[in-house]
Amino acid sequence: MEKTEIISQVQDIFRDHLDDESIVLKDETTAADVDGWDSLMHLQLIVAVENHFKIKFTSREIMSWKNVGEMIDCLKGKGV
């Protein structure tokens, strides 16, 4: 799957869970850039992404991400 398609699907997940259709994700997007993306929502978003793509992230992977781009790269590394 191409990176643009993955980020589009992840963006749809974020929009749905944060109830905000105006969210536009970029590689450099962080939680500080998105209203409502707090620590609890972070966990919910991770679970939603895992369920959508039928993969599991390790705690080490999750802790290493600095932005959305690094999460997308991790997804690509899992064969998405």
Strand percentage: under 5%
How many β strands by DSSP? 0
Please name the CATH architecture. Answer: Orthogonal Bundle
User: Could you say what the CATH topology is called?
Assistant: Non-ribosomal Peptide Synthetase Peptidyl Carrier Protein, Chain A
- The global form is globular
Structural class: mainly alpha
Order of helices and strands: HHHH
Give the biggest sheet.
none
The residue-averaged pLDDT reads 97
Instruction: Determine the CATH superfamily.
Output: ACP-like
Q: Which stretches of 5+ consecutive residues score pLDDT under 50?
A: none
Straight-line N-to-C gap: 6 Å
* Count of structural domains: 1
Gyration radius (Cα, Å) is 11 Å
What oligomeric arrangement do these chains adopt?
A: single chain
**Helix run count:** 4
Question: Portion of residues in helices?
Answer: 55-70%
Query: In CATH, what is the class?
Result: Mainly Alpha
Give the key terms:
Non-ribosomal Peptide Synthetase Peptidyl Carrier Protein, Chain A; single chain; 80 residues; globular; mainly alpha
Note down, in words, how this protein is organized.
The chain has a single domain, classed as Non-ribosomal Peptide Synthetase Peptidyl Carrier Protein, Chain A, CATH 1.10.1200.10. The radius of gyration is 11 Å and the shape is globular. α1 (3-18) packs across α4. It contains 4 helices and no strands. 16% of the residues are buried. The protein is mainly α and 80 residues long.
